[in-house]
Structure formats: C-alpha cells, structure tokens
TrEMBL record:
Residues involved in heme binding: C450
Keyword ATP-binding recorded: no
Transmembrane feature ranges: none
Protein name from the UniProt record: Cytochrome P450
Pfam families: p450 (PF00067)
Keyword Oxidoreductase part of the UniProt annotation: yes
Family under the similarity heading: Belongs to the cytochrome P450 family.
Organism of derivation: Turnera subulata
Molecular functions per Gene Ontology: heme binding; iron ion binding; monooxygenase activity; oxidoreductase activity, acting on paired donors, with incorporation or reduction of molecular oxygen
Family annotation (SUPFAM superfamilies): Cytochrome P450
Entry keywords, A to Z: Heme, Iron, Metal-binding, Monooxygenase, Oxidoreductase
C-alpha cells in the first residue's frame, strides 16, 4: 500500500467515525432535545426497535428505566419525545395544557381515513378541533342527551344478556370480549346514526373499523414520509379499504338524511327522534377552515366515535371480569352490593351511580389495565421547553401513562388487583381526570382528555352490573384463565377470556 492510500484510508476512517458519531446521537446536542438511545445513521432507532420483535410499549418500559422521565427516540424521520413521569405529564397536559394540545402530522396513509385530519382525535389544536369537539360534547354526551338515549343502552343490554344465555347453553361457556364489543358497538352505531340495525350489520361495521385501525397503526411509511411514493401498494390497499368503509356506512347516512329531511323511514330502522343522532348535528355543520361537511367527513367522524368507544370499554369489561373470576371474594362482594341496591329487579342506569364498590372495581381495572399504555400522539403548538429540554413543534410528544399506575412509589403493591384501595387506601383521593395531579390517567388529562370518559365508564359499569347480577362467573373447567397481555389497538388478553356463567336466583336476567 502506498503512502497516499494509507493517508486516504486514515481520512476515510476518521470521516466515518465522525459521521457515525453525528448520526448515532439521539437527543442532546445543539438542539437540546432530551437524551436517548444511540441510533444508526439515517434510520435512527427504527431498526433497533423492529429487530427486537417486541411491542413498542415493552421497549419503552425498558428505556424508561435507563433514561428516566423524559427521553428521545429517533424513528426514521420522526422524532419522538417520550414523557413518563407523573410530574412532567401533569405539567405538560394540565399546567401548560394549550402548549402541548396539538397533534403531529399524519402520514399520507392516515390522511386517507381522516380526510385531511377532519376528526376530533387527529385535528390540530385550533378552530376546526374546537368546533368538532364542542359539537361532540353538546350533541352526544351532555347529561340531557345521555338520559334521552338511555333506552338504547337498555335495548342493547337486553340483547346482550339473551345472547350470553344462548351462547352458554350452546357451548357451556361464553366469549366475554366478543360479546361486550358487539353490544357496545350496537349502542354507538345507534347513537351515531339513530338506527337500530341487525347484529350481522353491526358485526360488519365492527370488522371494517378494526381493519381501518390495523391499517392506520404506525408502519414504515409513517417514519419515512419522504419515501411515501414508494409505498404505492399500501396506498392502494388503504384506498380500497376506505371505499369499503364508505360503502358500509354511507347507506345509513343517506337513510338518516332522508328521515331527517323528508320524514322517510322505509325499513323502519331509524328509531331515534330527529336531532337525537350524532350525525344529525353534522349535516348542517360548517366548521371554520373547512366549510360544509360531506359524506366523507360524516363517515370519518362517526367511525371515530365507534372506534374510540368500542375496544376501550370492552377491553375494560373483559379485564374486570377476569379479576372477578380469579377473586371470587371480590365477585361476591360486588354481587351483594348490586342485590342490596336492586333486589330481584333489573339494574338500571341510575342504580349504578349508587354502587361505590362497583365504581372501585372499575377504577381498579382502569389502573391495573389501562386500555392504552400511551395517549394518542401529542405535539407542541410551537417550540417550547419541558424539564429544561427543547421540544420543537414538529416532534411527536408521547405520554407513556401506564408507568404511572405501575410505580411502586405511587401505589402500594401496584401489581395486585385490590378495589378496596379506592374506598380506603392509596386510591381514595385519586382524580381520574388528572386535573389535581397525575396518579392514573386512563383517559388522558387536560385539553385533549377523552371527551366521553363518563360515557365509557357508564358502558363498563352497566355491563358488569348486569352480568354479575344475573350470573356467577367461573373459569371454564380444565382451561385456566390466562392473564397474558398482547397489543391490539388496546392492551387486551392474549387468549380472550372464556367463562362459565351460572344463573343467580335473585335476578331475572332480562327485562322481558
Ligand atoms: C373506557 C373507555 C375509554 C377510554 C379508556 C378512552 C381513552 C381515551 C384516551 C386515552 C384518549 C386520548 C387522550 C389524549 O390524547 O390525550 C381518548 C381520546 C378520545 N376519545 Fe376516548 N376513551 C374511552 C371511551 C370513549 C368513548 C365511548 C368515545 C366516544 C363515544 C370516545 C371518544 C374519544 C375521542 C373523540 C377522543 C379524541 C379527543 C381529542 O383529541 O380531543 N372515547 N380516549
């Protein structure tokens, strides 16, 4: 080797070393981002995450132990700032709420389903979001509307109990999650479109919306928007799925419009009075920066309600029932409370408000099994600071809220399922909305808190109260329950819960 070759080789090594050093650093540096695990050039930490073949929530759990309450991950072109401590979550979401109330840019794939971010969950913090959210709150979940629509829940729960009884007779056990999902989905479809439709059609809606959720979970194009033109196949599939979603929901919207405008109801499926369905409020809506909405937007806004409200509540009901099966004492205590309240009658909506132990069981389930371990991605409205670090406006700010409920400094024996802690213990003072402090925030906190948290809780309360009042719940003989978790939009049981139900003598399980 000649001297000049040796010289070039040395320079190449020095250059590569500097290049690697520059690219592998995550966080810190002149940008003053929070520190983070060293990444690879160009792709950052993306392939390290993919190669681990574990869900992101488990990787973050380990990184939190190493990097502490706030750290950065570089996922391709996307920078993620991950916030895990209760103090920082409270500071960002409540004390400085507006500063962190926006959402990051959507990938082209997600934009197909959100029709350019025209949904409450994806809209940036601004006039469009404010109008959509205010309309949702006044039209769907104000206390008068909740009361007016209580017949929908009564009807859906009667079907639920009948379906369970049939399934139990047929198979000797019931599938808890599938039944709870179907019931909640029927309620939300009726709240959105004012229509009472067959279970087969509800199942079809459920299936399509599940496909949409799977399609829109973060994938490679999300991390490399610059390469979007290369992902033509995915885009084609997304457009085909969107067409299917439109074909499934537009007939309901058209039939509702005809009912509202011309008083037509040919197949009698429209059951809510004019003005009582969520979609009615969207027909005449002209949100700022958007103008009058069309069928694309109606489909997106109604799908968001059904998707946001189904899995979250059904997952909670399934986890709660698992613990009631594993802890028969807790089940008996809950059963006694329900019987003490309603005797042999049917549990009504106003009854569940008078059941403190039920509320404690449901809160303990939200604590022990928060349906989502992260909130939806947040973004700063403009460059700001958190914990002394710079948070640029373009980055994803991810709140890892599950850690808060696992923290042994905040909870005594956090791994145990103990509803009593909410009656006399470390849960008594807890504010589930996070406003007074963050100890558990299953619905988020601040400006973007789940606007339907009370409705979601009502669905879980009613399902549990009706099911425990009518039946004693037991494991399937020879098939022990398995509490292993897996991730499917929410954190669900890997092997869905199957249970045996034995009728109680105190209850007429159905209202007929
Ligand atoms: C147990 C039930 C539920 C749980 C645990 C839950 C949880 C959450 C969480 C964690 C967020 C994200 C908050 C954030 O990004 O900071 C959220 C947002 C949202 N949820 Fe829920 N949710 C539930 C039920 C429902 C129901 C029944 C509906 C509709 C009827 C609903 C509609 C929404 C909407 C529209 C948003 C977006 C809010 C925004 O971006 O301003 N949720 N929910």
């Amino acid at each position: 080797m000649e001297l000049i070759d040796l010289f070039i080789l040395c320079w190449a090594i020095v250059f590569l070393r500097l290049w690697w050093k520059y690219w592998s650093v995550t966080g810190g540096g002149p940008k003053n981002l929070p520190p983070g695990p060293p990444g690879w050039p160009i792709v950052g930490n993306l392939f390290q995450v993919i190669l681990q073949r574990r869900h992101f929530i488990y990787i973050v759990r380990d990184l939190r132990a190493k990097y502490g309450p706030i750290f950065t991950m570089q996922m391709g072109q996307r920078t993620l700032v991950i916030v895990t401590s209760p103090e920082l979550i409270h500071e960002a979401l409540v004390q400085r709420g507006p500063a962190f109330a926006s959402r990051p840019a959507d990938s082209p794939l997600r934009l197909v389903f959100s029709v350019g971010k025209c949904a409450i969950n994806s809209a940036e913090y601004g006039p469009l979001w404010r109008t959509l959210r205010r309309n949702f709150v006044t039209e769907l979940i104000n206390p008068v509307r909740i009361k007016q629509c209580s017949w929908i829940r009564k009807w859906a729960l009667e079907n639920h109990m009948e379906r369970l009884e049939k399934e139990s007779v047929q198979n000797g056990f019931v599938e808890v999650m599938a039944n709870c999902r179907l019931t909640i989905c029927s309620i939300l479809v009726c709240l959105c479109f004012g229509a009472r439709i067959s279970e087969e059609r509800v199942k079809n809606i459920e299936l399509i919306l599940k496909e949409v959720m799977l399609m829109t979970t973060p994938k490679l194009p999300d991390f490399f928007p610059v390469l979007a033109p290369l992902f033509r196949r995915q885009m084609k599939e997304a457009k085909a799925l969107r067409k299917k979603q439109m074909e499934c929901l537009v007939p309901l919207i058209r039939s509702r419009r005809a009912f509202v405008k011309e008083n037509q109801n040919p197949n009698s499926e429209m059951v809510s009075p004019v003005g009582a369905a969520y979609v009615d409020s969207l027909f005449e809506m002209k949100p700022p920066t958007r103008g009058p909405l069309g069928e694309q937007e109606f489909v997106t806004l109604c799908s968001e309600v059904i998707s946001a409200g189904t899995d979250t509540s059904a997952t909670t009901a399934e986890w709660a029932l698992l613990h009631l099966i594993l802890n028969q004492d807790i089940q008996e205590k809950l059963y006694s409370e329900i019987v003490g309240c309603v005797g042999t009658g049917v549990v009504k909506e106003e009854d569940v408000e008078k059941m403190p132990y039920l509320a404690a069981v449901v809160k303990e389930t939200f604590r022990r099994h928060p349906p989502s371990h992260f909130l939806l991605s947040h973004a700063a409205t403009e460059e700001t600071k958190l914990a002394g670090y710079t948070i640029p406006s373009g980055v994803n700010v991810e709140f890892y809220t599950a850690w808060v409920t696992e923290d042994p400094d905040l909870w005594e024996d956090p791994g145990e399922f103990r509803p009593e802690r909410f009656l006399e213990g470390d849960g008594v003072e807890v504010d589930i909305t996070g406003t007074r402090g963050v100890k558990m925030v299953p619905f988020g906190a601040g400006r973007r808190i789940c606007p339907a948290w009370s409705l979601g809780t009502l669905h879980v309360n009613l399902l549990l109260a009706r099911m425990v009042h009518a039946f004693k719940w037991l494991p399937v003989p020879g098939s022990p329950t398995d509490p292993t978790e897996t991730f499917a939009f929410t954190v669900v049981m890997k092997n869905p819960l199957r249970a045996v139900m034995v009728p109680r003598t105190t209850s007429s399980s159905c209202a007929h």
